[in-house]
Amino acid sequence: EGATPLAQAYAGHQFGGFSPQLGDGRALLLGEVLDRAGQRRDIAFKGSGRTPFSRGGDGKAALGPILREYLMGEAMHALGIPTTRALAVVSTGERVRRDSGALPGAVLTRVAASHIRVGTFQFFAANQDHALLRRLADHVIKRHDPSLLGLPNPYLGLLKAVSERQAALIARWMGVGFIHGVMNTDNMTLSGETIDYGPCAFMDHYDPATVFSSIDRNGRYAYAQQPLIARWNLARLAETLLPLIHDDPQTAVDWVMPVIDGFPARYEHYWLVEMRAKLGLEGEESGDLALAQDFLGTMQGQGVDFTQAFRALALAAQGQPERLQALYADASGLNAWLARWQERVGRSAAPPLARAQAMNAVNPVYIPRNHWVEEALEAAGQGDLAPFEKLLAVLQHPFTERPELKRYAQPAPPEVAAGYRTFCGT
User: Fold this and answer.
1) CB of 54 within 8 A of CB of 26?
2) Average per-residue pLDDT in the chain?
3) Is the alpha carbon torsion for 388, 393, 398, 399 positive or negative?
4) Is residue 288 annotated as a catalytic residue, yes or no?
5) DSSP bridge pairs for 321
6) From the CB of residue 54, how many other CB atoms can be counted at a distance below 10 Å?
7) pTM for the predicted model, two decimal places
8) I want to staple 133 with a disulfide (CB 3.0 to 4.6 A). Which of 124, 375, 401, 412 is the partner?
9) Which of these, 13, 6, 9, lies nearest to 220 by C-alpha position?
């Protein structure tokens, strides 16, 4: 009732190349609602048909990619990571033509704090429409950062706020081994929510160069690249805000550069908060950063499962390192690290059991393992939703270990994991 649906315009850097007009090619914003907590939310369709921005596409969506977005978004929410949410996936009853053939069609109903992206600002900046750019910025400040309204320079404040949210978000991604797969500027929200789960996936064995997306041929959006790309994207946002921040371009640049240059330190702060919790470290010590980095270093080249390693570390906190050691082909490097770690955690007052419980509360035992996701989506395409519903139920309680669900905590066999690729839903 009262909805006035619209397709949103935006631009974007896609794999580093700028497109001045992209927009919602297969999405439709139905409108905004206030939830029971008074929070304003967008409700939008994805896959509902052609829009003025479809660029020759059909504007529709196949069931598999839409269910992937549903599954990934709900998994991220259960992990406590800011994300858009799925209200529903509804099959349309028609077939959608893709490279792999005719697939069952579906529409996702998505909920978000907003759908405003870095690319939204780039669209108006590219058109040099400073009046509309200012209106957009004022709208975003009012919606997401109302505390900035009384400041002398709210637009510089907006850049700082978005930078802070993205630093915290990417640190959370890195903490669970999540790889977005396509961090174009049109896929970065100003709200700090994860959006557009296309060729995304979770890393099994630790490798900072991990790439799953079939379209990321040069590893631009690899796991370890994500903090660097976030900074790059924020620099593109800063460029659009320059005329609002100061009339003199050089002065505006001088004011925004400390924000952009300061992003790595802000990200490192949030990443270290994440890692201290995952490693069971109380308080702050100067050697914590090296300790966290070195734990990852012990995994590299060893085929160690990222998620299982952190989970098994809680057992090591109780004097049982065997499960963790068993993950390594050669545990000598791990054992040297464990001695340093034991010395560090030994300086805190928490008893071993309490430390282990705190670690298990932040280190998931269940993530959307790629082979289980593919099995669920393939079955759903054949009309069987039972594997999908089962996997969804497991992922909604990622920190609670259940013996009967042991198989969902296991990585894929090497022959299955080798060469695994994800694909964009279009």
Assistant:
1) yes
2) 95
3) negative
4) no
5) none
6) 16
7) 0.96
8) 124
9) 13
